[in-house]
Amino acid sequence: MTEAERDPIFILDGPGSMAALRRWLTLIRDQRYPELPDDKLDELRLIATELAANAIEHAAGPRVVRVVSCSHGNVIVVQVDDASGGLAPCRGRSRLPADRGRGLTMVAGMAEWGVCYHPDGKTVWAAADVTGRPCGCLSAAS
Question: Running along the chain, 142 residues long, what does each successive block of 10 average in pLDDT?
């Protein structure tokens, strides 16, 4: 596998890395998914920044963002790894002030999402249908 074929990753260093994450997602779109319309790119940016913000605010590092797609290119999955395996994300609830804690609710409106636990922590993922062409991969991701 060549370097270009590997799943791209982005290291989250803290809240200041969010603008860089949005720029990185634009580069990923331009390099790997050039047919992806701007509105779908905006959705992926929102999904990725919400999952990344949760990892920064609630979980221990290291934190890594990955973008992968199904073999048909119809589903793009954003994965955010962190080192806090015991902390389960909860939709609509937050230990933060009352005007916070809506990120996963927004993500759920645009994508299927879930959590996979592993010995080094967890991966929170969101799989979005970006083409509207059913291929069965979205149901397989969840």
Answer: 62 82 91 89 93 89 89 85 82 59 85 92 92 67 50
